[in-house]
Design goal:
Elements lengths: L11 H10 L1 H13 L2 H31 L1
Helix pairs in contact: 1-2
Length: about 70
């Protein structure tokens, strides 16, 4: 399953799919981008994407352990 941060925002079709699948997060990020400067927003987005990847990895590792128990 894709998360909000798995989409390539530079591709219009992926950005549109992201908006359809995650409307509340999309609106939040639009508002956040308006409030922050571009550089500040990009740093925030990058940090959030990395955190989400770590969570996903931890879930996969935990699931794997349970499956083998």
């Amino acid at each position: 399953m894709r998360t909000f941060y798995d989409f390539n925002r530079s591709i219009p079709q992926e950005r549109e799919e992201q908006y359809k699948l995650f409307p509340a997060m999309s609106l939040y990020h639009i508002a956040l981008r308006e409030e922050l400067g571009e550089e500040e927003y990009q740093q925030f987005y990058k940090a959030e994407r990395e955190a989400q990847q770590q969570i996903t990895l931890a879930r996969q590792q935990r699931t794997g352990k349970w499956m083998h128990a």
